[in-house]
Amino acid sequence: MQRRRGEELDSAIRTAVLGLLAEHGPAGVTMEAVAAAARTSKPVLYRRWPDAATLLRDTLLRIATTAIPHDDRGSYREDMLSVLRGWAALFTGPDAAVLRAAVAATAQDQQLSEAFRNDVIGWRKKEMAALLSRGIARGDVRPDVPVEIARELGQSVLWHRLLITGDPITDELVVQLVDEVLVPFVAPRRS
């Protein structure tokens, strides 16, 4: 086996995890299978993750945290364009099949379901609440906005298209969602 370290090894491991998940579901993501697919050893994996479930959760969370921007763009509109464009790129890119497989697998795997909800979706909820708080502080989001709805409104359309309808996820859709649905929904009300 060739000796790889750092980002090169990490990338090979995570690529192996995603490939196994897409091909075999979460049951196919074992330390042995990941080690073989990544051309590394099980001890290398166990030094970083206690088990395959933790490795899978960590990989899914990393996809979400690296693919979905969460930095301040200066306005609610620009923040949401950035976030939804991140989701759109993820949902139309090479990891789209893996995401569908992961979501489908959550129906049969309670641990994966809890991890996905707590780690991936939980992280997103916190980030969206922070985004809305920034908008309230700037004055481009009304203080009484229902955060539980506003934080999921735009993303839900994209998830629905990815998982249910298969309708296209385009930049035009993202802009339309932001300008015609999200901005009016959160905008301060005139007295």
From TrEMBL:
<dbReference type="InterPro" id="IPR036271">
    <property type="entry name" value="Tet_transcr_reg_TetR-rel_C_sf"/>
</dbReference>
<dbReference type="InterPro" id="IPR011075">
    <property type="entry name" value="TetR_C"/>
</dbReference>
<keyword id="KW-0805">Transcription regulation</keyword>
<dbReference type="Pfam" id="PF00440">
    <property type="entry name" value="TetR_N"/>
</dbReference>
<dbReference type="InterPro" id="IPR001647">
    <property type="entry name" value="HTH_TetR"/>
</dbReference>
<protein>
    <submittedName>
        <fullName>Putative HTH-type transcriptional regulator YdeS</fullName>
    </submittedName>
</protein>
<dbReference type="GO" id="GO:0003700">
    <property type="term" value="F:DNA-binding transcription factor activity"/>
</dbReference>
<feature type="DNA-binding region" description="H-T-H motif">
    <location>
        <begin position="30"/>
        <end position="49"/>
    </location>
</feature>
<dbReference type="GO" id="GO:0000976">
    <property type="term" value="F:transcription cis-regulatory region binding"/>
</dbReference>
<feature type="domain" description="HTH tetR-type">
    <location>
        <begin position="7"/>
        <end position="67"/>
    </location>
</feature>
<keyword id="KW-0804">Transcription</keyword>
<dbReference type="InterPro" id="IPR009057">
    <property type="entry name" value="Homeodomain-like_sf"/>
</dbReference>
<dbReference type="Pfam" id="PF16859">
    <property type="entry name" value="TetR_C_11"/>
</dbReference>
<dbReference type="InterPro" id="IPR050109">
    <property type="entry name" value="HTH-type_TetR-like_transc_reg"/>
</dbReference>
<keyword id="KW-0238">DNA-binding</keyword>
